[in-house]
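Its record is set out here:
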Amino acid sequence: MKISKLAEGLKGSEIIKIAGEVNALKAQGEVVYNQTIGDFDSGIFPIPDELKAEIVTAYNDNQTNYPQANGMEALRVSVSDYLSRNLKLDYSKDEILISGGARPLIYAVYQTILDLEDTVLYPVPSWNNDAYSYLARNKAVVVETKVENNFMPTVSDIKPHIQQVNLIALCSPLNPTGTTFTKEALLEISELVIEENKRRASQDEKPLYILYDQIYWQLTYGETIHYNPVELVPAMRDFTIFIDGISKAFAATGVRVGWAFGPVHVINKMKALLSHIGAWAPKAEQLATASYLNQTEVVQDYLTHIKTELNDRLISYYQGFNALQTKGFPVRAIQPEAALYLTVQFDFIGKTTQEGTTLKSIQEVTSFLLHEAKLAIVPFYAFGTSTDSNWFRLSVGTARKEDIETVFELLENALQKLK
């Protein structure tokens, strides 16, 4: 039966494909350490007790009818105060849009900013920009970033394309790498956008916007500082649409409360678009989040807790890979800076297994790690890079600290079998 070309051409998720292999092994009684998904095991990382109590209270108060189209006013005010308090960003309630998590908001940015003939620039590896540009039927300039820049895009990556693009999709802290923009790198990109928009204004052309996904901004570690375009270059306020929410910092991926903020004329059009789709966060969860974000000390205590727990896991994995590298195995990891991800390299192409099979592709390396080391992780090509990239994302949101030593025992045993 024929269906639309759009539906026929939509690619499946590589992460879901790997999950299928993981589930097949588990069905056979195998123990698999599944570090693929960018989510949390709610048994290890439950949402804050106070947030849960507020959600229950809202349902008991029968807050179950339609929310306001742009989000409940109480939540928009709470988010406005939260941004002012924590990021020194001054956005009013009318410059904030609430939705069912970040995904509808990102899609709305693509549809609001880009016409069919317009072009989005996005770096890879990055999460799902290929899918959004495909669904919005836009042209795309894809920039593959470099390990020496911690896989973050630079002004030199973007500048050659600056006059032909209409939207630049950026994410920091970055999924899948857990790395962040330096102040200097983001400042240079922001200044480039301002200069380009001065040129466009003189030619009466549509401006260039930045989609700035900062959903992980509260999960930074050590000396890492989160930066955003508007704090570095205030004129970027007119051209930056932020994506944010509670999903990651509060382990609340299933609660589905996200928000965008930016120029009011863009936010209003995004609201109109999403009101037709009905991508609202549930009213009870919105009111609960509004109340929770106002509990400053409670929020800070939870953030301290979750950051400590995630960082402990990231550092343990990082040190484990460093130890393997010291022993001469062809692996390495980038020191974690933020989010719940570790970037790991497995330089296994051309290696031969104990059974005499030569690993010729990253897919085969991924399968080897899963079947021989019982470790499930995601190759960077799932995030848009070339298929020969030998870098992977390891997520710790489902990791138990007591399992990490076993993971490395299994991994070292598997690596000893490669020649």
User: Anything to note?
Assistant: DSSP finds 14 helices and 13 strands in the chain. Residues 55 and 162 are 45 Å apart (CA to CA). The chain has a mean pLDDT of 95.
